[in-house]
Amino acid sequence: MRIPAHSVCTAIRDDIVSGVLEQGSRLTEEQLARRYGVSRVPVREALRTLESEGFVLTRRHAGAHVAEPTEQEAADLLDMRALLEPLGAARAAQRRTDAHLKVLRGLVRLGQERARRGQGEDLRSLGGWFHETLAQASGSPPLTALLTQLRHKIAWMYAVGQPERPMETWAEHGAIVDAVARGDAERARALTALHVERSTPLHRLKRPERGRVRVSQHVVNTTSARN
């Protein structure tokens, strides 16, 4: 069975973001094929995709390596987020479906409930799903793809602390959804811009940990991995 390249790409990207594959480490098709239990063909396609996304850098005579972004490149990501997330929210107010709205409201209810209980890890996941759904509600595949790639890169380069008042954070999410539901694009844009501005100080640049052994959680082809 041929394993789709996008599945291999997702596994490699996740291991780069989590630090299993460290910045600057060499990536060979043979090594990655063994790691994920696949052939070299989907690995080759995945590396091309990851290079176009900025996670992988191919050097002449040196092959593929995990990219090593500069501090300026990392700072630029937060600036891009401050521009694109409000745009996505404005588009969502104009183009969202009832299904998007139902999911967004459900996530806000769950987030508020978890915030009251102090369940921080759940809040992190719910916040990611909220922003992913809001991006999808924009009705713009190119914008959604950019926002998704931004989230991956920010998670790769930054550790994000929990807000001191999570209930206020989820109240902000709820206000954004209300604006989206009313079709008020400018209010959705303004509220999202304020939300991004307030969350930016929680981001702390990660320092790569050299030499630490980490275990990948991804095996794309479990049959090959067992044999």
From TrEMBL:
Signal peptide region: none
SMART domains hit by this protein: FCD (SM00895), HTH_GNTR (SM00345)
Record-linked Pfam families: FCD, GntR
Family annotation (PROSITE patterns): HTH_GNTR (PS50949)
UniProtKB keywords: DNA-binding, Transcription, Transcription regulation
Start and end residues of each HTH gntR-type domain: 2-69
InterPro entries registered for this protein in UniProt: AsnC-type_HTH_dom, GntR_C, TF_FadR/GntR_C, Tscrpt_reg_HTH_GntR, WH-like_DNA-bd_sf, WH_DNA-bd_sf
Source organism, top-level taxon: Bacteria
PANTHER family in UniProt: GLUCONATE OPERON TRANSCRIPTIONAL REPRESSOR (PTHR43537:SF24), TRANSCRIPTIONAL REGULATOR, GNTR FAMILY (PTHR43537)
UniProt protein name: GntR family transcriptional regulator
